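Q: How do we represent a protein-ligand complex in a form that can be generated token by token?
A: Start from the inputs.
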Amino acid sequence: MNYIGSKFSILSYIDEVVEGVVKEKKDITFCDIFAGTGVVSKYFKEKGYNIISNDIEYFSYATLKGLIENSDELKFEKLQKKHIDPFICLNGLNGKKGFIYKNYSLGGTKKNEYQRQYFSDDNAKKIDACRIKIEKWKKKKLINEGEYYYLIACLIEAADKVANTASVYEAFLKEMKKSAYKPMIVNPLELIFKNKKYEIYNENSKDLIRKISGDILYLDPPYNNRKYDTNYHILETIALYDNPKIKGKTGTRVENTKKSNYCIKDKAAIELEDLIKNADFKYILLSYNDEGIIPIEKIEEMMKKYGNYKRYEKKHKRFKSDNERTYKKDYTIEYIHCLEKNK
Ligand SMILES: C[S@@+](CC[C@H](N)C(=O)[O-])C[C@H]1O[C@@H](n2cnc3c(N)ncnc32)[C@H](O)[C@@H]1O
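Then emit the structure tokens for the protein with S-adenosylmethionine bound:
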């Protein structure tokens, strides 16, 4: 998924920094407290670390439950007993005119105040049909919790691939793009099998930090005012499937209790310091780029209060989600601020 602030393309850089900073090599617990797509959690799961993974967004949590917490082969035993292969079944369903169709496709919104085309009519109906089926299997206890979240993760990924957007859902494109016409296919996503401990949370980092402990705390908070709840609201609705009240041309969710202080200039530094201060972790690594709303000097000054500080930096190609923004340069500098915390 093309996610704002995704660390997919700098995983090896993060790894280099971890290897350079962390002295312990055995039975490490790594916490990815702003996990987003889960690519960082997945990378360190592959390395054999115990993982604590968290995000305030439910669609991210569902993905983490599906892809990080599951660490054994999923057998779908009860479905198999009924000779149902979940993926063949989902991909063969007839479309349904559910919430996604009625609110986010042109066919479904043509008589509404706002016409929206986030998905083709057929794909919107398919998303509804799949999401309804997954919920039905769960209600009938034909799938267990691990299988449930795994299927939701696969559906989110599949829906995102055929969305008629420039990567984020704060707007849809006026003309349908080619990939949005392709029929949605729900594919099984890769799972990593390791015998370690995995904890997944859906909490505000401020609350969670007071309840957990480990070796490495990796911080990748939002670094500007682009909010994840509005930019990914449809993925949130597909994951929750809760018939929310929505508003305006973009159809964003009305109820919004998840405002992140990291997106607010006056609050971001206070929020970050609270996290660092209350972290029961030996090493804290913070990813932040040179365009973040907290100045680099402030981060350095803050971290130095709590232990030994070191900073790494690397040029990184910019995340581009639309054509309307103009940028002075096509790269950013990705800093990793490292702290070895005093006891
Ligand atoms: C820069 S992104 C993380 C990207 C992630 N490392 C990846 O590679 O996909 C920041 C994430 O922090 C989450 N977030 C924002 N404020 C939060 C908070 N207070 N507590 C927990 N998660 C938060 C957002 O939902 C978003 O997924």
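The chain is about 40% helix and 15% strand. The mean pLDDT is 95.
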